[in-house]
TrEMBL record:
Protein name: Putative tellurite resistance protein B-like protein
InterPro entries assigned: DjlA_N, TerB-like
Domain Co-chaperone DjlA N-terminal: 28-141
Taxonomic superkingdom: Bacteria
Length: 148
């Protein structure tokens, strides 16, 4: 599965590329984005890992063990992922506006899980917001909602 997804990323810059990202792979790509966002400050803390597991369980109907296994797969995928804006650009074309907002909310929950606001994490999240096409005012609402 990962080889197929990585091949999709590598071929995305090709103008002849027309294969959409399969829905099952989109879930892993979004998980990998959460891992990437959590690592943006050069620290991957227990609180962030725990929040990723929680979000994966909630959004995918998984039990804790299944969520941890999915996160581990997403961690492996994150290592092979292209630039953050490239993966967000791929997701932009295959997920709904509602899913884009849910993804941003999940990402903000992950980066705020450690209780510390880091500039690097902000930059990554704002980059993803821009690529996904979520308006700045709505993105700010989602950011504030994630802190509650």
């Amino acid at each position: 599965m990962f080889e197929h997804l990585i091949a999709l990323f590598r071929n995305h810059g090709d103008p002849a590329y027309t294969t959409p990202l399969p829905q099952a792979d989109a879930r892993h790509a979004m998980g990998a984005l959460m891992v990437r966002a959590a690592k943006a400050d050069q620290a991957y803390l227990f609180e962030e890992i725990n929040m990723i597991d929680k979000v994966l369980a909630e959004r995918n109907g998984l039990n804790p063990v299944e969520a941890a296994k999915m996160r581990a797969a997403c961690e492996n995928l994150e290592k092979e992922m292209p630039a953050t804006d490239a993966i967000a650009s791929i997701l932009k074309d295959v997920i709904s506006a509602e899913e884009k907002e849910a993804t941003l909310l999940a990402l903000w929950r992950v980066v705020f899980a450690d209780g510390v606001k880091h500039e690097q994490e902000d930059l990554v999240l704002h980059q993803i917001e821009d690529v996904l096409g979520v308006p700045a005012d709505r993105a700010k609402q989602l950011q504030m909602q994630s802190m509650q």
